[in-house]
């Protein structure tokens, strides 16, 4: 798509690095009170007063984390911001600023980078975060994006991975497995396209799961909801690598075990139907498919009345003593040891 | 060097992403009071109380910003941190934390990445900053490093690029041009090595300029000095792209002009002798050679008595009205318009 010969093509070298940063950031508005000085100096200046500051950073590498043959650049820019905001929300914090650095090879014209930044801008606007810094440079191959997200949280309101206690409820927001299945559909369509470029795919049956993959959202709304319900989770993590892997992180950091109930896993009907079509086990997908960017948390039993009727939150298990281990309790009431098959970029090659 | 067959070689995939982060960060100590929670959760948690926060980020890309054939990985790790701290100091702030993300191809064994992190750790220790986050992932080619540095500054003590006023003095720390010349020497030795791999280069005459290139320092000491002298510069920037380019940034942001005096440029004797050897004009090198990471600032005339005897600071010119333009006043008392020939990574190839 980005190599379409009919599109306008402005070489990046025409602008140079300073021109490029100025050009790309000129349409971004500053919204946060904490942003004192944004792009244009050696560093941004921020002021958080009596709030604590959270900082997180993530790399997205072409050919490892994304494939531009089905990932539009605008969506990619959006997603690059979202995956970082998700880490901020997982601390029970409010996201306030991001910095975005890109390394691009000469095969990308200015117009492609503008598309990428259009997606970044959409995410910033929707999530009310300011773009306050970044770096643009050339790369010898492909596109690499590095985002750092900053947020604020009242002192002692932050939630770590380490606070889960035996008998706490294990709770997940939204539904899971969709993003991974969306990727499977896109990979299949890519193969079909290679064989028959004139084929027009009908993706009607997969709109939800494809959106979960291409345009994920971070659960800012869930952080707000928890605040409104007056619930402070005892521990929290976002689901980027797969439910199973994230549960094991919480258990390890909190020194606890858990029982996860297979029949409680929240699955969208499209996840179930697509699993059947692909002959995949939906529980395996829910446990190991990543990139859903839902929040996994543990909540004290006494908060159960506050969350039980909420359609955004599902109780999927409970925390046990550490020596009990972490298990999946199947529909047949069998206990299976949970293992992490989360994604490891170093395994690819 | 890193592909020496005799070295121990542990594949990164043996550790996986989580194992790698834990392994690499386990020897880093937390020193800053503002670091509440470091690596190991979704985000770091920091607390700056009534201080303002500065944030800056930079990419270093193999084949664009560094060449591993003469840049040892330990030095590279050190430099990656330094170039970011330099931006923090250029705000008149104190550097407190960094996050470091790396994307590496499979050609790097664990031992190579440990070398890189040894350099990062040395820089963190020496500059008293905490490593509080990062990401490790695979890349399809080469090594890419993204560092974000965070600092703190008392409210209204931060110094921007935009505060220079006519009649202010233009001041630079240390000496300039060395880092660029060091690179020229290293590039020449690389070519010699290609022709005759048994040649043992004698680099005795270039120790200072090679160190400027391979192991630059950020001027934390100058920020401390300014504080001790009770001098708040009216504007400041660090010299990463070349003196000329940085002066033009200050002039543009401050809406002023300047006269820069050729005979005031601070040059190390090794810079002068190496320029002669390479048949280069030392003024051109001082103006356009980058990566010295010295601080360029403007200081009010009334502060002149405080700085004039200081060996770390050289007055190289003064600020004029904007419509006077930015000029170099040569030894022959000619005025030449200053132009930026600073480095642009998109021009390469």
UniProtKB/TrEMBL annotation, chains A, B:
<dbReference type="InterPro" id="IPR036676">
    <property type="entry name" value="PurM-like_C_sf"/>
</dbReference>
<keyword id="KW-0479">Metal-binding</keyword>
<dbReference type="GO" id="GO:0000287">
    <property type="term" value="F:magnesium ion binding"/>
</dbReference>
<feature type="binding site">
    <location>
        <position position="58"/>
    </location>
    <ligand>
        <name>Mg(2+) 2</name>
    </ligand>
</feature>
<feature type="domain" description="PurM-like N-terminal">
    <location>
        <begin position="40"/>
        <end position="153"/>
    </location>
</feature>
<feature type="binding site">
    <location>
        <position position="291"/>
    </location>
    <ligand>
        <name>substrate</name>
    </ligand>
</feature>
<feature type="binding site">
    <location>
        <position position="241"/>
    </location>
    <ligand>
        <name>Mg(2+) 5</name>
    </ligand>
</feature>
<feature type="binding site">
    <location>
        <position position="135"/>
    </location>
    <ligand>
        <name>Mg(2+) 1</name>
    </ligand>
</feature>
<comment type="function">
    <text>Catalyzes the ATP-dependent phosphorylation of thiamine-monophosphate (TMP) to form thiamine-pyrophosphate (TPP), the active form of vitamin B1.</text>
</comment>
<protein>
    <recommendedName>
        <fullName>Thiamine-monophosphate kinase</fullName>
        <ecNumber>2.7.4.16</ecNumber>
    </recommendedName>
</protein>
<dbReference type="GO" id="GO:0009229">
    <property type="term" value="P:thiamine diphosphate biosynthetic process"/>
</dbReference>
<feature type="binding site">
    <location>
        <position position="87"/>
    </location>
    <ligand>
        <name>Mg(2+) 2</name>
    </ligand>
</feature>
<feature type="binding site">
    <location>
        <position position="42"/>
    </location>
    <ligand>
        <name>Mg(2+) 4</name>
    </ligand>
</feature>
<dbReference type="InterPro" id="IPR036921">
    <property type="entry name" value="PurM-like_N_sf"/>
</dbReference>
<feature type="binding site">
    <location>
        <position position="238"/>
    </location>
    <ligand>
        <name>Mg(2+) 3</name>
    </ligand>
</feature>
<feature type="binding site">
    <location>
        <position position="42"/>
    </location>
    <ligand>
        <name>Mg(2+) 3</name>
    </ligand>
</feature>
<dbReference type="GO" id="GO:0009228">
    <property type="term" value="P:thiamine biosynthetic process"/>
</dbReference>
<keyword id="KW-0067">ATP-binding</keyword>
<feature type="binding site">
    <location>
        <position position="161"/>
    </location>
    <ligand>
        <name>ATP</name>
    </ligand>
</feature>
<feature type="binding site">
    <location>
        <position position="87"/>
    </location>
    <ligand>
        <name>Mg(2+) 4</name>
    </ligand>
</feature>
<dbReference type="GO" id="GO:0005524">
    <property type="term" value="F:ATP binding"/>
</dbReference>
<feature type="binding site">
    <location>
        <position position="240"/>
    </location>
    <ligand>
        <name>ATP</name>
    </ligand>
</feature>
<feature type="binding site">
    <location>
        <position position="343"/>
    </location>
    <ligand>
        <name>substrate</name>
    </ligand>
</feature>
<feature type="binding site">
    <location>
        <position position="87"/>
    </location>
    <ligand>
        <name>Mg(2+) 3</name>
    </ligand>
</feature>
<comment type="similarity">
    <text>Belongs to the thiamine-monophosphate kinase family.</text>
</comment>
<keyword id="KW-0784">Thiamine biosynthesis</keyword>
<dbReference type="Pfam" id="PF00586">
    <property type="entry name" value="AIRS"/>
</dbReference>
<dbReference type="InterPro" id="IPR006283">
    <property type="entry name" value="ThiL-like"/>
</dbReference>
<keyword id="KW-0460">Magnesium</keyword>
<feature type="binding site">
    <location>
        <position position="58"/>
    </location>
    <ligand>
        <name>Mg(2+) 1</name>
    </ligand>
</feature>
<keyword id="KW-0808">Transferase</keyword>
<feature type="binding site">
    <location>
        <position position="117"/>
    </location>
    <ligand>
        <name>ATP</name>
    </ligand>
</feature>
<keyword id="KW-0418">Kinase</keyword>
<keyword id="KW-0547">Nucleotide-binding</keyword>
<feature type="binding site">
    <location>
        <position position="57"/>
    </location>
    <ligand>
        <name>Mg(2+) 1</name>
    </ligand>
</feature>
<dbReference type="GO" id="GO:0009030">
    <property type="term" value="F:thiamine-phosphate kinase activity"/>
</dbReference>
<feature type="binding site">
    <location>
        <position position="56"/>
    </location>
    <ligand>
        <name>Mg(2+) 4</name>
    </ligand>
</feature>
<feature type="binding site">
    <location>
        <position position="65"/>
    </location>
    <ligand>
        <name>substrate</name>
    </ligand>
</feature>
<dbReference type="InterPro" id="IPR016188">
    <property type="entry name" value="PurM-like_N"/>
</dbReference>
<comment type="pathway">
    <text>Cofactor biosynthesis; thiamine diphosphate biosynthesis; thiamine diphosphate from thiamine phosphate: step 1/1.</text>
</comment>
<feature type="binding site">
    <location>
        <begin position="134"/>
        <end position="135"/>
    </location>
    <ligand>
        <name>ATP</name>
    </ligand>
</feature>
């Amino acid at each position: 798509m980005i190599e379409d010969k009919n599109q306008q093509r402005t070489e990046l070298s025409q602008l140079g690095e300073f021109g490029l940063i100025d050009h790309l950031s000129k349409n971004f508005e500053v919204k946060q009170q904490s942003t004192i000085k944004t792009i244009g100096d050696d560093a941004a200046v921020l002021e958080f007063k009596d709030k604590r500051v959270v900082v997180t950073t993530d790399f997205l590498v072409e050919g490892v984390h994304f494939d531009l043959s089905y990932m539009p650049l605008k969506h990619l820019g959006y997603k690059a911001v979202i995956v970082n905001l998700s880490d901020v929300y997982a601390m029970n914090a409010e996201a306030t600023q991001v910095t975005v650095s890109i390394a691009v090879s000469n095969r990308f014209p200015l117009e492609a980078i503008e598309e990428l930044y259009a997606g970044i801008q959409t995410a910033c606007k929707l999530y009310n975060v300011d773009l306050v810094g970044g770096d643009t440079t050339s790369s010898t191959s492909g596109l690499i994006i590095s985002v750092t997200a900053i947020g604020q949280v009242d002192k002692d309101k932050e939630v770590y991975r380490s606070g889960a206690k035996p008998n706490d409820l294990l709770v997940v927001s939204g539904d899971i497995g969709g993003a991974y299945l969306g990727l499977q559909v896109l990979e299949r369509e890519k193969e079909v396209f290679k064989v028959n470029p004139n084929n027009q795919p009908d993706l009607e049956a997969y709109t939800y799961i494809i959106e979960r993959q291409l345009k994920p959202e971070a659960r800012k709304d869930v952080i707000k909801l928890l605040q409104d319900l007056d619930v402070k989770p005892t521990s929290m993590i976002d689901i980027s690598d797969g439910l199973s892997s994230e549960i094991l992180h919480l258990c390890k950091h909190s020194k606890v075990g858990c029982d996860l109930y297979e029949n409680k896993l929240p699955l969208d009907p499209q996840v179930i139907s697509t699993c059947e079509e692909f002959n995949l086990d939906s529980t395996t997908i829910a446990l190991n498919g990543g990139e859903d960017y839902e929040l996994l948390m543990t909540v004290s039993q006494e908060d159960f009345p506050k969350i039980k009727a909420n359609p955004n939150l599902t109780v999927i298990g409970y925390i046990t003593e550490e020596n009990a281990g972490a298990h999946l309790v199947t529909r047949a009431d069998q206990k299976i040891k949970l293992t992490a098959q989360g994604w490891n970029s170093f395994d690819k090659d």
